[in-house]
Amino acid sequence: MVGVNGQRTISWRLSAEDAVAEVHRQGGVAIAAHPMAKAWPFLDTAIRQLDGAEVAQPVVFQKLQFANELREFHTRSNTAAIGSSDWHGMGPVGFCRTYVFATDDSEAAILEAIRARRTVVVDRGRIFGNLELAQSAGDRLGQERPERGHLAWFSAVCGVAGLVGVALAALVHRRAAETQR
User: Fold this and answer.
1) Could you give the CA distance from residue 176 to residue 144 in angstroms, rounded to a whole number?
2) Are 82 and 52 in contact (CB under 8 A)?
3) pTM assigned to the model
């Protein structure tokens, strides 16, 4: 879960429902970040209190099942459509874009637009969210499509390097523990 505009750190130990309530107490919006089916049981109690849910994220390029799960959760949650709320180093950057239709560029106006579900997500020509807004924006949505080129290569290398680093750290930790026995 992503809390936007919070004033204090929120404990990861809270239930989803309590975490959303705390984000709201702090004046922020709560967004379900890549809510895959395995997380649904933890989010079910909070689903109606969420302000947004990711409907497109680079994981959708890995498996059709992942794309279907994100879309199904978004439909069930009836929240603002969000594209790529965060990035873990795998997949292309910038393909899943969120357009927020706010009255101005202030923090308050952007948060209000998310709460009011005035968002549109563009993902390689696919459009999610408030389709009336998408139609009114017309051809302007998604015109500046990023190229895969060097940035995609670099993101893949960083992702793989991170995974190798985690595996090596686990191996070193395990050997150190065995040596201490």
Assistant:
1) 50
2) yes
3) 0.73
70 close to 129: Cβ distance less than 8 angstroms = no
CB count, 10 Å around CB of 79? 27
Q: What is the mean pLDDT of each run of 10 residues along the chain (181 residues)?
A: 88 93 96 90 90 86 83 92 73 74 93 94 81 75 54 62 76 82 71
For 2-146, CATH number out of 1.10.10.10, 3.20.20.140, 3.30.420.10, 3.30.390.50 equals 3.20.20.140
Nearest-angstrom CA–CA distance, 152 and 94: 10
Please provide the DSSP assignment of 29-78 as one string: EEEE-S--GGGHHHHTTTTTT-SEEEEE-GGGGT-HHHHHHHHHHHHHHT
Q: Give the end-to-end CA distance of the chain in Å, rounded to a whole number.
A: 39
Alpha helices in the chain (DSSP H): 16-25, 40-43, 64-77, 107-115, 131-137, 149-180
What pLDDT score was predicted for residue 14? 93
